[in-house]
Amino acid sequence: AKSYEFVKVEQRGRVGIVTLYRPKALNALCSPLMKDLNEALQAFDKDEGVGAMIVTGSEKAFAAGADIKEMKDLEFVSNYKNNFLGDWTGINSIRKPIIAAVNGFALGGGCEVAMMCDTIYAGDTARFGQPEIKLGTIPGAGGSQRLTSLIGKAKAMDLILTGDMITAQEALASGLVARVFPAKDLLEESIKRATVIANMSLPSVLMAKEAINKSLELGLTEGLHLERRLFQATFGTKDQKEGMAAFTEKRAPNFKHE
Ligand code: CO8
């Protein structure tokens, strides 16, 4: 596998793990780090042997946001001409599921990267926030949009307008994260669940992810139409035959991802 400066990659069975690695700056998301992250995820997305991915950071920080030192002297016209942050959306085009496993700080762009993933599991010491307002700016990579759809308007306003952090337990209660584990167990527990997903039929997994993500963008009629069409399409896979045969024969299915 290729090696990168700002992320570490590892494969456990059918699970691809990308660890953000910029310890000197609490994994602050400089442009080269985002480039490495996107490349590493794209490589796993293409890899036939991988069925699900995890993005994680260190025990102290998932990521403490965009790199403030890199950003501080930027100007509107150059931001606009260079489409600043416009190319940080690579995660959105990954088709396989990605779990963000968050320990420590997930702030600003760090919280946004976690929300770009398909679900978030947190260690019990994790802290989430969108502190951009304290720097005289606002979220720029989906914070105002994704956080609002995940936790609702009142809570999103409260967090984004004050810049306050919330704990893992608060994030769980508000629907930002799906599960909380003791911090030291977070990665192993995330790998276990990613393995469950990675052993399901990959075509079904891709279709389920696509259908869920489209629910955030389509009206109900179009969303139900897409879901029904994808559901019908699963009957064209060998894995659907295997899954239903295994149930009938009272045995575990052996999906071949085709
Ligand atoms: N950018 C650059 N460097 C950082 C950042 C950052 N966001 N966060 C921490 N660092 C650096 C510190 O400067 C420090 O470096 P040095 O040792 O050279 O001084 C080192 O990391 C360790 O940090 P601290 O000493 O501050 O550690 P503490 O444990 O005292 O505090 C905190 C931890 C509370 C996380 C604190 O570091 C902090 O508040 N960080 C900034 C958090 C923040 O405001 N983040 C939002 C940034 S704005 C943003 O993300 C805009 C979104 C744009 C979209 C991004 C696209 C994905």
TrEMBL record:
Keywords: Fatty acid metabolism, Lipid metabolism, Lyase, Metal-binding, Zinc, Zinc-finger. GO terms for cellular component: mitochondrion. One of its GO terms (molecular function) is enoyl-CoA hydratase activity. One of its GO terms (biological process) is fatty acid beta-oxidation. The keyword Lyase applies. Belongs to the enoyl-CoA hydratase/isomerase family. This is Probable enoyl-CoA hydratase, mitochondrial. It comes from Physocladia obscura. The chain holds residues 293 to 550 of 550 of the full protein.
